Amino acid sequence: MYQIPRAEWYDLTRATNWTPSYVSEEELFPEEMSGARGIPMAVWETYDEPYKVTYPEYVEIQRQKDAGAYSVKAALERDAYVDRADPGWISTMMAHYGAIAVNEYAASVAEARMARFSKAPGNRNMAVFGTLDENRHGQIQLFFPHANVKRNRQWDWAHKAMHTNEWAAIAARAFFDDIMLCRDAIAVSIMLTFSFETGFTNMQFLGLAADASEAGDHTFASLISSVQTDEARHAQQGGPSLKILIANGHKEEAQKMVDISIWRAWKLFSVLTGPIMDYYTPLEHRSQSFKEFMVEWIITQFERQLVDLGLDAPWYWEDLTKDLDTTHHGMHLGVWYWRPTVWWNPAAGASPEDRQWLEEKYPGWNKTWGRCWDVITDNLNNDREDLTLPETLPYICNMSQLPIVGTPGDGWDVKDYTLEHNGRLYHFGSKADRWCFEQDPVRHQEHQSLIDRFLSGQIQPADLPGALAYMGLGPGEMGQDAHNYAWAAAFKKQAKVA
Amino acid sequence: MAAFPISSNFEGDFVMQLIPVDTEDTMDQVAEKCAYHSIGRRVVAQPDKVLRVRMHQTNENYPRDMKVSEAGWRPTETLDIIFADS
Predict the structure, then answer these.
(1) Which residues contact A383 (CB under 8 A, 6 or more apart)?
(2) Cys bridge to A108: A120, A134, A387, B43, which one at CB 3.0-4.6 A?
(3) Nearest CA to CA, how far is B31 from chain A (Å)?
(4) What are phi and psi of A74, to 5 degrees?
(5) Is the ipTM of this complex over 0.85?
(6) Are A172 and A268 in contact (CB under 8 A)?
(7) Chain A contact for B45 (CB, 8 A cutoff)
(8) CATH code for A55-497?
(9) Which CATH architecture has domain B3-84?
(10) Where are the domains of chain B?
(11) Are residues B75 and A425, on separate chains, in Cβ contact within 8 Å?
């Protein structure tokens, strides 16, 4: 049967639009869902997505990707890699699945919003594929860890985490709800696909795939690569939206959306990806430090993309660059110290060799974070594990929903950025976190951080065990040191040899 | 007497912490309650120093015998707890 060549019909179908007659354009595309910002339909029809694919092509490629990833999983299942992998790497997978899998499903809702409500036909077309992508990502990243539920209850948190009030889950939801689920279609294309996916998921997935291969986890590496190739495609939906907004007098708003999303994504990555790359991944398998990765992917490459589009680097770019030396070390120490409050087993990554690597990558580490780890190490080596476990809660930022951290030891500079708004005192971990709040206080003012919930009596009994119960963490789920303190014992051995 | 929540920013530590104090506590007692969650856990004790309390990001210490109820703090106020010579 004769088929019309693709080039002859593709542009027509991808840009199909129509003039509504039974309802008004406003009823068909409500502003709060579409976010056209007064720009006429004819302009949105010029939206030109750089990556084009037809449905038959899409289905064929996706089938191949799934077949590849699922085959690798099936082939390696008997190898039981998980049973012999470094515990730090197991923690990486547990943290990743819990924080990401269900949010992928939420992302399919965000994509569906663009597919239905964007006034740009090209955006709607691409977002249909994006919806299918994200649905697949949710499924595959639940199916793979499910094979390990028989090993440990913590694996179940791949599905459970986002349905609980565990603090990291609250932080992830607060961010993803903001940029994916509570924005109009055009804002989603910019805040989710351009800012978050172009900038950060590239890093999460490329970096993790490299580390997974290095660690010999070919199942996880093939899964991650399979997801990443979809991200690379559908992340391109925001660029054309930005071009239209900038060309039609909305540069300031476009810039603000990008700035908010990048900052919030950075903070989430500082607690999730930073510890994974610099502490959990076994030393011999670390391909780059977190800072090196951030500089390459965010500071250099992403900034170039912003400039190419006619935007500026975010106003806090200098602060972010400085924070690459500090924030994730604090987040890691916090996660490790408050380890019963997470669903994975944090690897301390503070053995003598680890510390040497950290000092090399982050000069001054030993005199700052190292000072805290010195005390922790001494306590462990003197049978005072009790002093390495928390008895209160860390103070939480009202924007990132993460602990307010800073540099300890000789460079002590922990700072709280407060704001009194409508009679309530808000606390923020940085100037940029406070700025995000100030751009739209109504959006955020009612949200209660874990501390707010604790103080308002929602957590009973009002103590740490009560907080753990509130977070849904039962026995066998609460995090412990991934290596059972072998890294601390190494200092003892070192002292004996000396 | 009433429980009063503060945010403790302890010198040398890396994180702010929620500390419940009492409106009748003196500043020395506030410092002691904050120290319990930092000293010997992530911060080395300095026996030759005393701990002083001051409003976050200021330089003036509160009198050691001043009570919480006299300080005019808002609930969850952030306080710096610092090592001082006296």
Answers:
(1) none
(2) A134
(3) 15
(4) -65, -40
(5) yes
(6) yes
(7) no
(8) 1.10.620.20
(9) Roll (3.10)
(10) 3-84
(11) yes
Nearest CB to B41 within list A375, A409, A415: A375
Give me the DSSP letters along A155-199.
GGHHHHGGGS--HHHHHHHHHHIIIIISS-HHHHIIIIIIIIIII
Model confidence over A346-392: pLDDT tens digits? 999 999 999 999 999 999 999 999 999 999 999 999 999 999 999 99
Tokens in use for A68? 């590849």
Q: What is the spatial distance between Cα B11 and Cα A480, in angstroms, rounded to a whole number? A: 27
Element containing residue B51 per DSSP (H, E): strand B50-55
Residue A303: partners with Cβ closer than 8 Å, 6 or more residues away: A313, A317
Among chain A residues, the shortest Cα distance to B4 is held by A455
Domain range list for chain A: 55-497
User: What is the nearest CA distance from B77 to chain A, expressed in angstroms?
Assistant: 8
Q: Which tokens sit at A476? A: 């066998």
Closest-CA residue to A161 (of A245, A100, A113)? A100
Contact criterion met (CB below 8 Å) for B80 and B51: no
- Kindly state the tokens that stand for A196: 């978050």
Q: Does A380 touch chain B (CB under 8 A)?
A: no
Place of tokens 């791949």: A158
Chain A interface includes B18 (CB < 8 A): yes
Count of CB contacts below 8 A, A vs B?
102
Distances (CA, A) of A486 to A492, B32, B74: 10, 33, 44
Instruction: Search chain A and give the residue with CA nearest B10.
Output: A414
Within an 8 Å CB–CB cutoff, is residue B76 touching chain A?
yes
**pLDDT tens readout for residues A235-287:** 899 999 999 999 999 999 999 999 999 999 999 999 999 999 999 999 998 88
Contact A92, A79 (CB under 8 A): no
